Amino acid sequence: MEIALARARILVTGANSGIGAAIARQLAASGARVAVNYLVHPEATDALLAELRGAGAEAIGLPGDVSDPAQVAAMYAGLDRQWGGIDGLVNNAGIDGAHAPAWEADPAAWERVLRVNLYGSFLCARAALQRMVAQRSGVVLNMSSVHERIAWSGYSAYTASKAGVAMLTQTLAQEAAPFGVRVLALAPGAIRTPINQDVWGNPATLRDLLTKIPLGRMGEPEEIARVATFLVSGLASYMTGSTVFCDGAMSDYPEFAHGG
Ligand code: NAI
Ligand code: BGC
């Protein structure tokens, strides 16, 4: 069984790093046209675009902060101008935020996490759905996390944002289904990327993390990218409105921790 995306126009947000870059690579390898949104590190975007184009793919770069309505509008105007619209959106951009118990958290920093992870996903989905509902086809894939389900001390903004992404996904899926448009969420476990380098870069914190993952290792971005590519493809045509977990059973870890 091969995934063939037939030049589908797919926007991946936060795509110049980690999971987003792996998804961009896998989508391109499956025949999609890929729009690489990025906020910082234009040089990383240039390198990724050169790599994708070198492998024969069509790829464009689209700068923009997903939490800013004007920048999101500009991003979609760029897509409309260059490719005449969109067939798939991967709402991948996200931040963990600073570690702090709620009573010590800076409200502005807390709000920023919600703005990027939840409001940004809404803004990008809204613009995508305007186009997909009109053309009666398309897929939105929201990057959630095991932390839509399991608590994570010190990261209440992050867990709240990802739980919000889960319900955003279900509601948008219900709204868009009559128009033949699917909306899904993908919940990775602990994947080795820059976002959690402070954890896997330190033997003590890595050891602690691994006790919470039944498969006994962190995941790699490519393992998420393969699932993401399947979910946006026609092979997943009967899937909408749910979160798919790809986590080495990490979402079972409260029970696992007591299992001995
Ligand atoms: P990463 O830090 O490598 O990538 C995040 C990307 O989002 C970066 O390119 C960053 O510049 C971009 N970004 C941040 N704020 C942005 C904004 N306002 N507008 C546009 N782009 C913005 O981290 P990683 O791990 O690749 O994370 C990707 C997604 O996966 C995030 O949504 C994260 O919450 C989620 N995730 C990651 C897990 C992991 O263990 N690495 C596990 C579960 C979920
Ligand atoms: C976070 C990572 C963390 C992982 C497992 C993800 O949602 O972005 O920083 O390592 O969950 O806790």
Structure write-up:
It is a single chain. By secondary structure, the protein is of the alpha/beta class. The chain has one domain (9-248): 3-Layer(aba) Sandwich (Rossmann fold), CATH 3.40.50.720. 47% of the residues lie in helices and 14% in strands. The protein has a seven-stranded parallel beta sheet with strand order 3-2-1-4-5-6-7, sandwiched between helices. α1 (18-29) packs across α8 (221-232), α3 runs parallel beside α4 and α4 packs parallel to α5 (156-176). The radius of gyration is 18 Å and the shape is globular. It starts with 8 loop residues before the first strand and ends with a helix. The relative contact order is 0.14. Mean pLDDT is 96; it is low at 256-260. 1,4-dihydronicotinamide adenine dinucleotide binds at residues 13-14, 16-20, 37-40, 65-67, 92-95, 116, 120, 143, 145, 188, 190-191, 193-196.
